[in-house]
Please model this.
Amino acid sequence: MVATEVDGLPALENAGSEHFKGFEGGATVYLGHNVVARGSYSYHDARFNDFTDIIDGEPKQLAGNRLEVSAHNLASGSVFYLPARGVMGGVSFNYTGSRFLDRDNASLAPGFTTVDLSIGYRRPRWELRVDGRNIGDRRDPVAASE
Model:
């Protein structure tokens, strides 16, 4: 099923057949002295096998096209200082690769990265933390209408 619009309202429609392949992996490394590094990567290839859609008033076969808003590459990484007590903090990033914003694969949005920061204070039984998500205030397009 894929998202569509019917009479101005969101709806789902049968997407014919689709093909998904890819892999994901991640690792955590304890660097000593209360420092932890984490990373992950995934590759996704989501394509239409057999799907005809109406584009600009005409039926168009989309076989082989990537599914809209499906990035091939996703990655993340972080480094945190996490003592049992005292000041703690870290930085992390998330990367979303290029993705098409439409089914006919005419609008390619470039990849983008967001950065998060965290700082806090830890005790053995509690912690107080402030997290800043997407500190660069990125708002990249996620649909062709944007």
Observations:
- The chain has no helices and twelve strands.
- The first strand starts at residue 2 and ends at 6.
- The chain has a mean pLDDT of 89.
- Residues 30 and 36 are 5 Å apart (CA to CA).
